[in-house]
TrEMBL record, chain A:
It comes from the Eukaryota. Residues 43-134 form the tRNA-splicing endonuclease subunit Sen15 domain. It comes from Hydnum rufescens UP504. GO terms for biological process: tRNA splicing, via endonucleolytic cleavage and ligation. Coiled coil: none annotated. GO terms for molecular function: nucleic acid binding. Signal peptide: none annotated. This is tRNA-splicing endonuclease subunit Sen15 domain-containing protein.
From TrEMBL, chain B:
Residues 265-357 form the tRNA intron endonuclease catalytic domain. Constitutes one of the two catalytic subunit of the tRNA-splicing endonuclease complex, a complex responsible for identification and cleavage of the splice sites in pre-tRNA. It cleaves pre-tRNA at the 5'- and 3'-splice sites to release the intron. The products are an intron and two tRNA half-molecules bearing 2',3'-cyclic phosphate and 5'-OH termini. There are no conserved sequences at the splice sites, but the intron is invariably located at the same site in the gene, placing the splice sites an invariant distance from the constant structural features of the tRNA body. This is tRNA-splicing endonuclease subunit Sen2. Residues 166-200 are annotated as: Disordered. The active site is at Y295, H303, K350. GO terms for biological process: tRNA-type intron splice site recognition and cleavage. Keywords: Lyase, tRNA processing. It comes from Hydnum rufescens UP504. Coiled coil: none annotated. Residues 186-195 have a biased composition (Acidic residues). One of its GO terms (molecular function) is tRNA-intron lyase activity. One of its GO terms (cellular component) is cytoplasm. It comes from the Eukaryota.
Length: 136, 396
């Protein structure tokens, strides 16, 4: 059973059909260009489309940051939001955050970073430029 | 929130098996004969039923994906392995999607949480209104009668709760008898519309971390992992090397420095294996700013008791300087950060535990030993539980 080419049984066909490249289909070119961030992009994109069910979801490549970000709206009448996927193993710094703000066009007032763990756990953090008063 | 009594029993039955391997009583000896002959007799010994699950290794996400519904069910129900990539923990995306399209029949965990949050929000607005009304009434009474206001006889919160409960009881139940109309009406497809054809495609898979996958394949031998590129099953040696190399992806294995004792796969596997062998269910602690959460039996039974922070300690400080991994929490934790972590976890009633993993020195241990799990013997692990002590309050 180990090491040799597997006999084509139906269970295996199912595995191969759901093989990662099939699922990555929509994002395949972008993931190939930035392989280090492929997982966080894939997970964020799927989360927004299937779980949060945002509309107008687009993947925007930003060469200066060597990664792709995801833009979308929570609902049709909401403003466009920017989500920057990143992995739990990355170390973020103030410079990194500044670069993200500078390189998104138009320069946003706030971004969301989507942090993805190995088991696909995701947390979103909202970051604003400067101090924001809490709502009353 | 916790319900005791008869409603607890379904979980005990559904999640009765702590691991995917299930002992099956021997066919040859009934219970009485086994007791007479004794447990060591071959006739009385039970055999083990092995589900032989299959997963696909994904290098980019450093995980193993389970896509067959049967395997997802087994791995989740027997030991809570993995996480649905479109769900909070248990893979419920397909059910939620079906509920969304066809109306809610059975609530999933996420829907139940959403419902509770709505109810709590409603309670809070009603309570705020009641408090404002009581304050206005007291002001009015003071203005007309000149007496200082007397405190209300009944607690406002209980009054509001009772009101809401009475309202709920009096309104007719809409949820179970009349499911709301489906959100998207599928257009009739040229006359043919077979029953049940609108079952949406399941876009979700169960994602196992590499530690879980290796524990299942090496420790329990119930998982076979497929390499999607070569389309062959990985042997245990190949899997070990692949999991080590995944942490330096996308650098190709021939050039990368993945064969080092501080490879995150090894450090985390030591922790995972240690707690799993002691019977804890160990899951990601991302939501609480920690590495792992420990559950006594599983997420469906109680909330996690412990929140783990892995603190890798290098036997040889020189190894840390030459490391390509930049492991977090290797330096002593500052008091402010420790207090923050403790505060966050105390608020959610978890005890913070620091887990110190000693990484063996590259000088002392030959590098060849990294090619097999035997290298795990070189690591040590110590746990320290942190609890805030308040002298004024903790006198007992």
């Amino acid at each position: 059973m180990e090491g040799h080419p597997c006999v084509r049984d139906p269970l295996l066909e199912l595995c191969i059909a759901h093989h990662v490249s099939y699922k990555y289909n929509d994002l395949q070119t972008v993931c190939a260009r930035y392989p280090k961030h492929a997982q966080s992009l894939f997970q964020t994109y799927n989360d927004m489309i299937y779980v949060q069910q945002w509309v107008d979801v687009n993947v925007v490549e930003i060469a200066e940051l060597s990664r792709a970000i995801v833009t979308g709206r929570k609902a049709a009448d909401e403003p466009m939001r920017i989500v920057v996927p990143c992995s739990l193993s990355e170390n973020l710094s103030i410079k990194w955050l500044n670069d993200v703000f500078q390189n998104c066009s138009p320069i946003p007032n706030e971004i969301w970073i989507g942090i993805v763990g190995d088991d696909s756990s995701m947390v979103y953090y909202k970051l604003s430029k400067g101090i924001v008063k809490p709502p009353m | 929130m916790t319900e005791k009594g008869p409603s607890r029993r379904p979980e005990n039955k559904i999640y009765a098996n702590a691991l995917p391997l299930v002992p099956v009583p021997s066919l040859y000896a009934g219970p009485i004969l086994s007791r007479v002959l004794g447990p060591s007799t071959p006739l009385a010994r039970a055999s083990i039923s092995n589900p032989h699950c299959v997963g696909v290794f994904d290098e980019k996400s450093r995980s193993v994906w389970i896509t067959s519904a049967r395997d997802i069910d087994i791995l989740w129900k027997r030991g809570f392995f993995g996480k649905g990539n479109l769900s909070r923990s248990e893979p419920t995306w397909l059910n939620r999607r079906i509920n969304q399209l066809n109306g809610v029949k059975v609530l999933t965990a996420e829907e139940l949480t959403a419902k509770r949050r709505e109810e709590r929000k409603l309670f809070k607005t009603e309570r705020a209104q009641a408090i404002a009304a009581a304050a206005a009434e007291a002001e009015a009474r003071f203005a007309t009668e000149g007496r200082p206001p007397t405190p209300p006889v009944e607690n406002i919160s209980t009054a509001v709760r009772a009101n809401l409960a009475a309202q709920k009881a009096s309104t007719p139940h809409l949820s179970t008898s009349d499911p709301p109309p489906p959100l998207d009406d599928p257009p009739p497809d040229e006359g043919e519309e077979p029953e049940g054809s609108d079952r949406p495609e399941n876009m979700e898979h169960l994602q196992l971390t590499l530690q879980e996958a290796f524990f299942l394949s090496w420790g329990l031998d119930c998982l076979d992992v497929l390499d999607p590129i070569t389309e062959t099953y990985l042997t245990r040696e190949q899997a070990w090397q692949a999991y080590l190399a995944a942490h330096t992806f996308p650098i190709p294995p021939s050039l990368s420095q993945h064969r080092r004792f501080d490879n995150p796969f090894l450090v985390h596997y030591v922790v995972y294996h240690h707690f799993r062998s002691l019977g804890w269910v160990i899951k990601s602690g991302l939501k609480f700013c920690t590495d792992y959460l420990l559950y006594k039996r599983g997420p469906v039974f109680t909330h996690a008791e412990f929140s783990l922070v892995v603190c890798p300690t290098y036997e040889d400080p020189g190894d840390e300087q030459s490391s390509p991994f930049d492991l977090p929490n290797t330096k002593p934790i500052s008091w402010s950060w420790l207090s923050t972590l403790n505060r966050v976890n105390t608020q959610v009633r978890k005890s913070l535990m620091l887990v110190y993993v000693t990484i063996p020195a590259m000088k002392r241990v030959p590098l060849e030993s990294i090619d097999s799990p035997a290298v795990l013997q070189e690591y040590t692990i110590r746990e320290v539980t942190i609890k805030r002590f308040v002298p004024a309050r903790m006198r007992d």
